[in-house]
Structures are given as C-alpha cells and as structure tokens.
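User: Sequence recovery, please. Input:
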C-alpha cells in the first residue's frame, strides 16, 4: 500500500477518501469501546473534527462492507424495547478487524506524518 501524496494529485488533504478514513476511525473507536451503534460513530467523528462527519451513506456502507469483510460483527437490537419499531445494529471489532487496524495504523502513520509536515511548511511559508 503506497500512500505517498505523489500518487493522486487530486487528493491533497490526507490523500485518502472519506470512506478510507471512516473505516480507519471506526476500527480505532471499536478498540476504545467494546461496541457501538451508528449514532455513536457520528458523535465521535464530530468530536474529533469539530464539524465533519462522513455522509450517512458513507458510514453505513462502510459498516456493512466491514461486516461483509469479517472485520466487524453486527448484532441486531431495538432502540427501545417497549416500542420494538426502530432497529439498531451494534458493531464489534473481530480478530481480523484488530489485525487490519494494526496494519492500517502503521501505513497511515507515515501518511499523517507526511501531511502534517506539508501543512507546517504551508503555515510557515504563508502565515509567518
């Protein structure tokens, strides 16, 4: 996996798609908390970035793909047991998901360091 910013001149910030970052951050969150529903993920993204959240379709598609890939387990539940109307899905990371997270952490560390260095140079050049 080559993550250098030279790969895609159309991607500048972080050089990764929203779906790639969503997958990575979901795995991170599930290492901090045992299980979560999609609403929890949305809240955590907002805390991290201030205002950015993945589009609902990006988050849900990513969660479904990760489940299909065996990175997550999904358990059906109800938001309220008195009114069994609204289903929710609780997600947990699997052993395969833990292994994937460790690989991604190493790869993305290089990318984040590169991008941080570029941003520091931009700030120093333009705003100093």
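Assistant: Recovered sequence (128 residues):
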């Amino acid at each position: 996996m080559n993550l250098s910013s030279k790969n895609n001149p159309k991607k500048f910030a972080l050089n990764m798609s929203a779906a790639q970052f969503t997958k990575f951050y979901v795995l991170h969150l599930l290492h901090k908390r045992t299980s979560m529903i999609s609403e929890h993920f949305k809240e955590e993204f907002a805390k991290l970035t201030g205002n950015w959240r993945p589009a609902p379709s990006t988050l849900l598609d990513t969660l479904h793909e990760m489940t299909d890939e065996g990175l997550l387990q999904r358990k059906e539940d109800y938001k309220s047991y008195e009114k069994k109307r609204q289903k929710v899905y609780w997600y947990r990371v699997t052993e395969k998901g833990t292994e994937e997270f460790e690989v991604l952490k190493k790869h993305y560390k290089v990318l984040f360091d590169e991008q941080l260095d570029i941003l520091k140079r931009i700030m120093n050049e333009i705003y100093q």
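DSSP finds four helices and two strands in the chain.
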